[in-house]
Structures are given as C-alpha cells and as structure tokens.
Amino acid sequence: MAELKSLAKDTAIYGVSSIVGRFLNYLLVPLYTVVLPAASGGYGVVSNVYAYTALILVLLTFGMETGFFRFANKSGENPEKVYANTLLFVGGLSLVFVALCIIFLHPISAFLGYPDHPDYVGMMVLVVALDSFQCIPFAYLRYKKRPIKFAAIKLFNIIGNICLNLFFLLLCPWLDAQGYDWVSSFYNPNYLVGYIFASNLIMSAVQMFFFSSELRGFSYRIDWGLMKKMITYSFPILIFGLVGILNQTIDKMIYPFLFDERQEGLVQLGIYSATSKVALVMAMFTQAFRYAYEPFVFGKTKDADNRKVYAAAMKYFFIFSLLAFLAVMGYMDILKYMVASDYWEGLGVVAIVMGAEIFKGIYFNLSFWYKLTDETRWGAYFSLIGCIVILVLNVCLVPRYGYVASAWASVAGYGVITLLSYVIGQKKYPVSYPLKEMAVYLILAVVLFALYHAVEIPNVVLRLIYRTLLILVFVAYIVKKDLPLKSIPIINRFVK
Questions:
Q1: Consecutive 10-residue runs of the chain (496 residues): their mean pLDDT?
Q2: CA 348 remoteness from chain centre
C-alpha cells in the first residue's frame, strides 16, 4: 500500500503540470474557435499540422525515454552514462532532421498541402526538434524523482504560450483597431494561424534555458556498446510508438485527403478536433498517471509483490477513469462552452472519444509486461494492428459518415489492441487483475450514464443537480468498496 501511495503522490504532482497545465492550455481552444470560425477551416489547419509534429516527435525521441528508464535501472549500468548517451543520440538525430527539413522546406510544405505557407512547416520543424531533445532532460527529472521542477517547467511553458497567444490573437487586434500604427510593423490580421505556431516556437526555445543543470556535469562520450544495446531495445518501442501516435493522429493527418474538397476536410477536422478537446479530463489523467507509472514499474521489478501492485494500480486507474467519464458527460452543459457555438454540432463525439481514451489508458497499463520482459516487439505488433484498424475504418467510413466515424474507429482500434495485449500478456507475464470488481464498476457507470438521459429535465440547473447526485452515487460506491475516508490523507483526520 505504501508503494501505491507513493505512486498516487507522484501522479498528483505530475498532474499539476499535466492536468492543471493542459487544462490551462486547453483554455486556448475557446479562443481559437472564436478567432478561427468553423467555416474558415483555420482550426483544422492547426490540428493537421500538430498531428504531423506529434508523429515526428515520436520519431526523433526514438523510444529512448523508455530505453533510458530501462538501462538506468539495470544492474551494472551507470545511470549518468546512460543519460549522456541518450542525450547525444536524440540531440544528434534532431539536428540532422532540422538540417534536412530546412534544405527541402518548400517541397515538404507543398506535399503537406501548404505551398503558400512554408513558414508554418519551418516553425514547427524547429519546435519538434527542440521538444524531442527536451524530452530526455524531462525523463531525467522523472528518474531523479524531481516532479516539482518537472511541473514548474511544464507550467511555465504553458502559461507563457497562453500569454503569447493572448497577445497575438486578442491584444494586437485590439491595438490595431484602436489605431496604434506601431502594431502594424509586426502584426498581420490575416496571419492568425501563424501566430499560434510562432508562440509555440518562442516558448520551446525559452524552455531550453531551464535545463542548464541537467545538461552539465556529464562526460559526453558515446559508449558504442551501450548505445547499441539501447538502440536494439528502443527500436521496437520506436516502431510501436510511431504506430501508436498514428493511432491518435492518422485521422487528423488524412482528413484533407478524404474529401473531394480539401477545405471541407479542414472544416470537418476543425469541428472534430475542437469538440474532442472537451474530453481533456480523461486525456490529462492518463498522461499524469503515465508520467508516474513508467518509472514506478521499472523501479518495482525486483520486489516480490510487484504483480499485486500492478493489479491494484490497474483497478484504481479504471475506477477513476470511469469517474472522469461520468463527470465530463454529466457537466456537458457547462463544458460545451469550451468551444464556440458554431462547433457544438460535434459534441456528440465526446462520449465516444472518452471511451477511446479509457481503452488507451488500460492498454498503457497492460503494456508494461513486454517492457519488463524485454519483448518490446509485441508493442510494435499491437500498435500496427491498431493503426490498421483505425486507418481502414477512417478511409472507408469518414467520407460517408464524417468525424463520428473517426471517433468510433479510435474505439475499435484501441479496443482490439487492449484485448490482444491482455490475452498474450497473461501467457507471458500473468497478473491477476480484479476483473469482477472492475466489471461491477463498469456496469454501475453505464447504468448511471443511461440515467443521465432517461430523465428529461429541461431546466439546466436542475439537470446539473440531478446528474451531480448520480455522480455522488458512484463516488459513494468507491468510498464504500475501495477507498474508505479514513485511508485518505487530510480527510482521515476528521474521520474516526
């Protein structure tokens, strides 16, 4: 239980940067959807470009985050040497990537569909190179169990990015409208999408200065023997990482090509991407858990009771994922204001997207078995299967059914690989997960969700009160079965 409390503590601290930070960042979505109307397709451009950068980020980190944790915790290896070699590899790969992209910037921009805006592509090339390199110092902070500095840097980056976006997208237009001529020397009212990318680039560059202590005091020499072992271990992780991120972004990458008119694809993509952001609670919880869980898993490999701890962690993750689902869907009348009203037509996909996020989180919890047994090729197999399912369903169904098909394709893709990972994992590294207890929570959540819609309540306030009571039923069950109040820090002081 002490280990789970430690995991919960780290998850909470990482959550400051992940949950709170991403929530602050997602506050930009209302701004983007206001200044970039749905019909303009501007938000579709942003989503499309960021989908490509997410893919490249995985490519440049090369699975070395997980590789670093594996070898830094491996008996006989020097953690500082492992870290230095990881920095050299990822940094070198990023430099080569930037050089090639700058040389072929115009052909790449034309291929992606932005021949008139190579500046968009150029800025994001620099952003993704900086971010990929910075992933390693961030991993080092996690290894050293320094979640506070980790969270502080993440929050600074996010708050700075928000401020720059507000400056370019709100303050500058206002100053320009008020007749301040000096603003026109650097501000173009028709370049709003470009300012979003420029803000990101500025903050990624500034963030580098915060890693000065993590980049000094090491012997930057390549240990070719160690490097070969790390590449061998990390390459399958790279493959399933690439395919895994494709699972998340392939729809956003191919949307402009699935419609007869590229502009229509961008409009559809903008609506889908914006409304999917309403499911941010699930995505942020999963990310915060991941930051704490990966070093936790590798650190527990030598403990005799590790499998029991893994099983308990899975159960609690599942429970709180369902709670997050009920909360988001219960307060949709409030959360829908995260996007402008002309995007509301896409709110029907939120529940589906959250279902996909739950499967994604369960799959991540299951994935440790092939990492601990050094059989990372299985991750590549699973990710490839999931990607094929998602890609085929998108190509076949999106032109006919639109973005709703994309949401269901994600559920299908992650559902398939979750089932495969569980079945094969139980043969390779069996863990006794409390499936019956988890099933009870699932049934209860489904029943409560159905009751949301079974009773028609026209008054918004009364509807929110009704749904809050249903959510409290789920919370009460959690407290009764698995999380008594006396076990919760601070609260236990008032409970005998």
A1: 55 59 73 87 89 92 86 77 90 95 94 89 94 91 82 88 93 88 86 93 94 82 87 83 80 84 85 83 65 54 64 84 90 87 88 90 82 77 88 90 89 93 89 90 94 91 94 92 60 47
A2: 21
**CA distance linking residue 359 with residue 416, whole number of Å:** 9
Any alpha helices (H) in 259-335, and if so which ranges? Answer: 262-276, 280-299, 306-330, 332-335
CA–CA dist 390, 388 (Å, integer): 6
User: Tokens at residue 136, please?
Assistant: 């390693």
Angle between the 280-299 and 306-330 helix axes, to the nearest 10 degrees?
A: 170
275 with 261: CB under 8 angstroms?
no
* Distance between CA atoms of residues 214 and 291, nearest Å: 18
In this structure, the number of other CB atoms found within 10 A of the CB of residue 279 comes to 24
Of 165, 156, 217, 239, nearest in space to 195 by CA: 165
DSSP 18: I
Instruction: Please give the single-letter amino acid code of residue 420.
Output: L
Question: Over the range 35-70, which residues count as b (16 or more CB within 10 Å of their CB) and which as e?
Answer: bbebebbbbbbbbbbbbbbbbbbbbbbbbbbbbbbb
User: So what's the pLDDT on residue 466?
Assistant: 95
- Cβ neighbors of 275 (< 8 A, separation 6 or more) are 339, 343, 344, 346, 347, 349, 350
Task: Report the interhelical angle of 460-481 vs 435-454 (nearest 10°).
Answer: 170
> What letter does residue 331 receive in the DSSP assignment?
T
CB 58 within 8 A of CB 279: no
- Region of residue 62 (left: phi > 0; alpha: psi -120 to 50; beta: else): left
Gap between the Cα atoms of 202 and 160, Å rounded:
9
Amino acid at 396: C
Chain-centre distance for alpha carbon 224:
33
DSSP letter at 269?
H
Burial of residue 453 (number of CB atoms within 10 Å: 0-12, 13-18, 19+): exposed
Determine the Cα–Cα distance for residues 244 and 232; give it in Å rounded to an integer. 19
Q: Enumerate helices (H) and strands (E) in the chain, giving the number of each.
A: 22, 0
Q: Is 180 helix (H, G, I), strand (E, B) or coil?
A: coil
| Under 8 Å between Cβ of 109 and 68 | no
Predicted confidence at residue 440, as pLDDT, reads 94
Q: In this structure, how many other beta carbons lie within 10 angstroms of the beta carbon of residue 252? A: 22
Q: Which residues contact 233 (CB under 8 A, 6 or more apart)?
A: 63, 67, 70, 71, 374, 376
